[in-house]
Amino acid sequence: MTAAVDDDLWSAVGDPTRRRMLDLLLADGDGTATGLSARLPVTRQAIAKHLGVLDRAGLVHATPAGRERRYRVDEAQLARAVAQLSSVGAAWDARLRRIKRIAEAVQRGRDQRGAPR
Fold it and tell me: How far apart are CA 58 and CA 63, in angstroms?
């Protein structure tokens, strides 16, 4: 792989609840743990923990808003995650193409050996 993979970033976006939270924050512009918990089948405390993971990965940033904290997606960090995913996907596509070529060459060799002369 050409790009370094950030395991914390991948771990953060690997969870379906956190991906859904990112979707909601992107759609709304920002949000709070209370607001997100009203829209997801997860407790406010669980949402707060998920937001902490996203914050440590740099995917969201919080600003105080009264007794709550408002979270906003860091679009540059999200773009970095997308770039890493694309890079890994391209690397795996290349590997799969090589495996396919090898398998086809093996099959051609078998076909040629098994063909009547």
Answer: 14
Tell me, what's the pLDDT at 2?
40
> pLDDT tens for residues 40-93?
999 999 999 999 999 999 999 999 999 999 999 999 999 988 888 888 888 888
DSSP 35-101: HHHHHSSS-HHHHHHHHHHHHHTTSEEEEEETTEEEEEE-HHHHHHHHHHHHHHHHHHHHHHHHHHH
Between the two ends of the chain, the Cα-to-Cα distance in Å is 45
CA nearest neighbour of 39 among 54, 24, 60: 24
Q: Which residues of 8-47 are buried (b: 16+ CB within 10 A; e: fewer)?
A: ebeebbeeebbebbbebbeeeebbbbebbbeebebeeeeb
**Which amino acid type is present at position 29?**
G
